[in-house]
Amino acid sequence: MQTGSDARSGSSGNAGLHLPVTVGKHPHLDGSVALTIGNFDGVHLGHRALVERCRSCVGSGGKVVALAFHPHAMVTLNPEHAPEQIEPFAVRRQRLLALGADEVIELTPTAELLSQSPQSFVDHLVDTYQPGVIVEGHDFHFGKRRAGTPTVLRELAGLRGVEVEIVRPVEVSLTDQSIVTASSTMTRWLLQRGRVRDAAFVLGRMHELVGQVVKGDQIGRSIGFRTANVGTESMLPRDGVYGAVVTLPDGARVGGAVNIGG
Predict the structure, then answer these.
(1) Dihedral angle over CA of 179, 85, 238, 257, nearest 10
(2) Which ranges in the chain are annotated with CATH 3.40.50.620?
(3) I want to staple 169 with a disulfide (CB 3.0 to 4.6 A). Which of 27, 57, 181, 202 is the partner?
């Protein structure tokens, strides 16, 4: 179920996206492994840029591997402040594969893993996955107390003969003409305010609620049209009524309305 129209009014404007500067291919990396690490929650335009850069580095004969943390590291470090997941991990995996990743590996953020020094973490990545290049975003942090930065990553990986590509942020213009960086945090912020149209610009698609129909109060029988109660692990936008496109089990797509919290 894709939510596409805001519950609020006035959601119009010249919204779009500003893509990061692309770089040339690296012929000497053709056929090698490109590795990217992150939460990838929501698989937004910034994540798409990471996967695309991986592919451009190693070519069609190379392998793109995404190491995806699940659950979020904050579940281990500070559970009370862990962010709500935008969508289930299984959906996240499917999206990354559809973007061009050859393999998506679930990485559990254990206390032991999160307490590693930046050097130990990089050594583990290189020894385990043998990448020719590691591709990360400008705000990537890793290791104990998030001491690892893109600069540190480049230095440590370089010592092991591994190249590092840092992808510039993807900027998106919203319906209010503001320009934001595509991120999972921004996506959550927009959904919490019912701005599903703007969330779609950040995601590069409509936000989806993936789930199964569950038994409800059967109110639809008394109001003259069909209703369905959907149980989902996807993040719900703010309470309200939203326009939606519903994809049925047989693949058919129909228009509908989603009432959240009513």
Answers:
(1) 100
(2) 20-167
(3) 181
CA-wise closest residue to 7 among 237, 247, 246, 171: 237
pTM: 0.88
Tokens of 147: 């001491």
Provide the 3-class DSSP secondary structure of residue 37. strand
In Å, what is the CA distance from 58 to each residue of 24, 168, 171, 223?
Answer: 11, 19, 25, 57
Residue 175 CB burial class (10 angstroms; 0-12, 13-18, ≥19): middle
Q: What CA–CA distance (Å, rounded) separates 180 from 73?
A: 24
Summarize pLDDT for 45-57 with one digit per residue, the tens. Answer: 999 999 999 999 9
3-state secondary structure of 50: helix
Lookup result for tokens 């059967």: 218
Model confidence pLDDT, tens digit, residues 139-181: 999 999 999 999 999 999 999 999 999 999 999 999 999 999 9
> What is the helix (H) or strand (E) element at residue 64, kind and residue range?
strand 63-69
Per DSSP, what are the bridge partners of residue 208? 2
